[in-house]
TrEMBL record:
Signal peptide: 1-19
Domain of life of the organism encoding this protein: Eukaryota
GO MF terms held by the record: hydrolase activity
Signal recorded as keyword: yes
Name of the protein: Alpha/beta-hydrolase
Organism: Periconia macrospinosa
All residue ranges annotated as the AB hydrolase-1 domain in the record: 33-288
Length: 296
């Protein structure tokens, strides 16, 4: 047999028939874990979690995504599109995915699963008879979430300036009627500094680390944070896990209970002894939860 044909056949065998793509078992490979940060934060906050997932024996793909709206004036749609590009990469290859969000990032992963098959459905197949991927789980760590009523009736959603915590700073603020461009985290540094609102558990153990992460904070786009969500995934279509922090100073129990207690809401509740950004303060516990919910 011609050597060119031999090498071509070998390449197709090991690439799954698709140039430039390494093949894997569509039915038995672990899901890809996609990690989405919250407002003001970049994907680097998941670095420790990513390393621990590998050290814990997880042999799947772990990928953290930077949101375009952090450090720019990008929209919520831009955030969702950035995540969907990564999601589609794996779903098209037949790889299931687990979505992990923190704070505002939970709303992003919720919008991103619109029209995406979940693990509660029969596995879909493409036109060539190959199984496509599904969403196994959505994990909301300290999530700020849209209410069902606000998605069904968008006119009921209040402007974020009317319901935001006091440490949000909206700029420019030279006129009450002006539409802000950005949201910052330093509106009340005296009583609500970031090491209290975001990193209070981390600050107790390692003040220097908390100070480092305060220095990494960026502004977020007002348009992104003020946008109305387009989809509610916690109505039973998907397996959604809400992870509350016992010491979360940003999302207190009365707030996260208001999400869970909505009519028709279907959540699995997990509670960590953590703060608002548990991937920094309780990375080991975060990893255990993620791995647990990679299983169907």
């Amino acid at each position: 047999m011609n050597l060119v044909i031999v090498f071509s056949l070998l390449f197709l065998l090991f690439s799954g028939g698709r140039a430039g793509i390494v093949s894997f078992d569509r039915d038995n490979s672990p899901p890809a874990i996609l990690l989405v940060p919250g407002a003001f934060h970049q994907a680097v906050v998941y670095d420790t979690v990513g390393h621990l997932l590998k050290n814990a024996g997880y042999n799947g793909v772990v990928e953290a995504i930077n949101l375009p709206s952090v450090g720019s004036l990008a929209s919520r749609d831009d955030d969702v599109k950035a995540l969907r590009r990564v999601m589609d990469k794996y779903l098209d290859l037949g790889r299931d995915i687990v979505l992990v969000g923190n704070s505002y990032g939970c709303t992003v992963i919720g919008d991103a699963v619109l029209n995406i098959p979940s693990a509660t459905t029969t596995p879909p197949y493409d036109e060539e008879g190959r199984r496509r991927g599904r969403v196994v789980s959505l994990l909301y760590f300290s999530g700020y979430l849209p209410y069902t009523e606000q998605v069904v009736h968008p006119e009921t959603k209040p402007d974020i300036r009317l319901v935001s915590p006091k440490w949000f700073a909206f700029l420019p603020n030279d006129s009450p009627s002006a539409i802000p461009k950005t949201v910052r985290w330093d509106g009340d540094l005296q009583s609500s500094p970031p090491d209290k609102e975001f990193y209070n558990v981390l600050a107790q153990r390692n003040p220097a680390a908390a100070n480092y992460w305060v220095g990494q904070l960026r502004y977020s786009s007002f348009a992104a944070l003020n946008a109305t969500a387009r989809y509610i995934p916690y109505n039973g279509d998907f397996r959604v896990i809400y992870v509350a922090g016992k010491q979360d100073n940003s999302v207190p129990p009365e707030l996260w209970h208001s999400y869970l207690d909505q009519p028709g809401a279907k959540f699995i509740l997990e509670v960590l002894d953590g703060d608002h950004v548990p991937m920094l303060s309780r990375p080991e516990e975060v990893v255990k939860l993620i791995i647990n919910y990679t299983k169907l």
